[in-house]
Design a protein that fits this description.
heterodimer; A: alpha+beta; Pdz3 Domain; 5-stranded antiparallel beta sheet; B: about 60 residues; about 20% strand; disordered N terminus
Chain lengths: ~325, ~60
């Protein structure tokens, strides 16, 4: 991200790939990229890329009839302008600023100014937070509407084609998440959709407090900046391994492979332990999900319980979570 | 499509052109001729009247 104009190229900086279509005057036609929680490439594929390229070429040829998009970009700003970045860059091989470093620098700055909230990690909410699933190829097409979701309550249906979000035209999943990023929490979003070839009156979706929180954000690199982690790493046991230990298939069972946090070491967690409970949570999780749970639900300086199986016997432990955030890593 | 898609600009590589020190881009293999300077991409887009396709990727 070195030297990239982050006032223009704004996106979910927890991603590792993002693309933009624009003209030489830096008017953005479309954003291509983004993801749902369950897969990094949920909406990246050749067919959808060709579709958006064709649509962008049409828009470009029609210039003059300009596509309504965001207001003009703010003055140029690069990651190197962020105060915390001066501390991050020397720690990066080749001085390379990663995408997540940009978001990380913003979160650390917020932390230092005592305005950090856990919700700040949930930027660029995916459409699933509304209760809709967009088609991976025709990314304006609603493939599924979740029962009892805000989208269903507002009247959206599978097969609807999303033309605009808050009166900005959208072509892609990336365009939709960009517009959703601008919606407050709680708030409401207005969708213009086409159903059976007919454009419907605008549909307003009411979004409750916390609507930006997605189901499984454990892939986000910056989560560790909003709350403490477990201080150990490990891997999930297979269903067969769980059965041998007398555990249910949906039970938490993570074998510890590395204990790197002083708080985990002080708690007595050892390599080889099998974690079967943490902070009262006993449901199946990956190690990333376990960390995400703590980052998002616990605060610095709190104490949580853990139960591990050691030589087949349960051992109950208390983990005193770090008192201070990690700052720059 | 390829006729129109002339400009792919790896913006992650900008540091190499804007700053004296910093990471150099890892060239993307394949048939597409990528431009590794955003300013150069913009200049070409203006000169030819074509749109830009800007990719930002993590390569390290």
């Amino acid at each position: 991200m070195n030297g990239v104009n982050i006032a223009l190229f704004r996106f979910d900086y927890d991603l590792t790939w993002m693309a933009f279509f624009l003209n030489a005057d830096e008017e953005i036609y479309a954003r291509y990229g983004g993801r749902e929680d369950d897969h990094a490439e949920s909406h990246l594929n050749k067919e959808s890329l060709v579709r958006v390229m064709e649509a962008v070429l049409k828009l470009h040829q029609q210039r003059g009839a300009r596509r309504p998009d965001d207001p003009p970009a703010k003055p140029k700003r690069v990651p190197e302008d962020l105060p915390v970045m001066k501390e991050i860059v020397p720690r990066r091989p080749h001085g390379c600023i990663h995408c997540h470093d940009v978001k990380g620098a913003e979160l650390i700055q917020a932390q230092r100014e005592h305005r950090l909230r856990k919700e700040m990690v949930f930027v660029y909410p995916p459409p699933s937070t509304l209760g809709i699933e967009l088609d991976p190829v025709n990314q304006r097409l609603i493939r599924r509407v979740v029962e009892k979701s805000p989208a269903q309550r507002a009247g959206l249906r599978p097969g609807d084609l999303v033309l605009e979000v808050n009166r900005r035209s959208v072509l892609t999943f990336g365009d939709v998440t960009h517009q959703l990023s601008l919606v407050p929490d709680p708030g409401q979003v207005r969708l213009t959709v086409m159903r059976d070839g007919i454009e419907l009156p605008e549909i307003t979706i009411e979004l409750p407090p916390g609507w930006k929180r997605s189901r499984d954000p454990s892939w986000r690199e910056t989560l560790h900046l909003v709350g403490p982690g477990a201080g150990f790493w490990g891997s999930k046991l297979s269903p067969e391994q769980k059965r041998k230990l007398g555990l249910r298939e949906d039970a938490l069972a993570i074998q510890v492979q590395a204990v790197f946090g002083p708080h985990a070491q002080q708690a007595g967690i050892r390599n080889g332990d099998i974690v079967v409970e943490i902070d009262g949570q006993r449901q199946d999780m990956t190690i990333r999900q376990l960390h995400a749970y703590l980052h998002l639900n616990r605060s610095w300086g709190e104490t949580v319980t853990a139960t591990v199986l050691r030589n087949g016997q349960p051992v109950h432990l208390k983990i005193h979570l770090p008192k201070v955030p990690p700052g720059v890593q | 499509m390829r006729l129109y898609l002339v400009f792919g600009v790896c913006v992650a590589a900008l540091h190499g052109t804007l700053y004296a020190q910093g990471p150099k881009p890892n060239p993307v293999p394949g048939k597409i001729r990528w431009v590794y300077s955003y300013e150069e991409g913009k200049r070409l887009a203006r000169e030819t009247g074509k749109p830009l396709f800007v990719v930002i990727r993590c390569e390290r």
